[in-house]
Amino acid sequence: xxxxxxxWLTQLRQLPLSDRFRIMNVCGGHERSITQAGLRGALPPQxxxxxxxxxxxxxxxxxxIYQAIQLAINEEITLLAFGDMLRVPVNxxxxxxxxxxQAHGAGADIRPIASPIEALKLAKxxxxxxxxxFAAGFETTTAPVAALLVEGIPDNLSILLSGRLTWPxxxxxxxxxxxxxxxxxxxxxxxxVMGPEEWQFVxxxxxxxxxxxxxxxxxxxxxxxxxxxxxxxxxRFLDNCYPELVKPEGNLSARAHLSTALEVxxxxxxxxxxxxxxxxxxxxxxxxxxxxxxxxxxxxxxxxRAGKMPAGCDCAQVVLGKKYPNECRLYGTACVPRNPIGxxxxxxxxxxxxxxxxxxxxx
Length: 363
Fold this sequence. Notes:
Layout: H1 5-13, E1 21-25, H2 28-36, H3 39-42, E2 47-51, H4 56-59, H5 62-74, E3 77-82, H6 100-105, E4 110-113, H7 116-125, E5 130-137, H8 139-151, E6 157-163, H9 167-175, E7 183-187, H10 188-194, H11 200-204, E8 210-213, H12 217-233, E9 238-240, H13 252-261, E10 262-269, E11 273-282, H14 291-294, H15 315-319, H16 351-357
Parallel strand pairs: 1-2, 1-7, 3-4, 3-5, 5-6, 7-8, 8-9
Antiparallel strand pairs: 10-11
């Protein structure tokens, strides 16, 4: 049934909801659409929309960003990174560059790019210059990086990969004693690549209502209605509310590139810790282009707060859906977009940045 956003809201308001019903999304794009459209305020008060682990920039290991900064400063390279990585801070003394943006200001050759293809074009245009592509992202961003490797890249381009899978973080929450949500709205763009089947465990193993949504208000509200009705009728299933793009098994070509060029490994999430089988690493056949093997390891484990969130920052709790952005003690005071303390205030997919842009101010 294809309804408009207004019609879905009418349907939602007619549901006999009596208790609080918490729905988590795990997509920065979803959270941005929800906030910009004012969906929270339009929904029945019993429905609580919780932003979850949907921002790859927010969970990118602090050590990886530090490594990228040090490579750019100490090696004769050009470092390439997606634009929202440039201002993410690391934990160093005030005398050192604490972000890629500050390292660029100190003289390092760091260039923002919007896609992996740009990295390829730049490397080919300057064959005598060494390039390192710092690639952080979830499956939808990592798949093009894998395709780049499979299709062939020049020897002067290396990959510093910080790719993550989305579902293991949700699985970790559901395996905990306090998952903090009653239903899941899964990310349509990830399901487009990896297939909807990746989210079936939410229903089969944990008996929670689940739906896959796109980025429009009508798709998000359809998914919200679906999980609410599943709970009311006591029947759980994975509902595809984004059928225009999400197909069974996903994008087979993209998945083939991922499995050919990369392997799934245990991976660190900033402020959260290691989540089993939640990261991507270059396959041994592509080790030649692995920046972690080609260049020195610059991480210094003895650095104060190495690998952690900045002091006082609740980004990890925000990412896990344990706190709302405006419940962080730094939100809107010490931490604002022009002077971010934590990564959630930097990225356009970070819940803190989204809420601030949506006009939410400290309580």
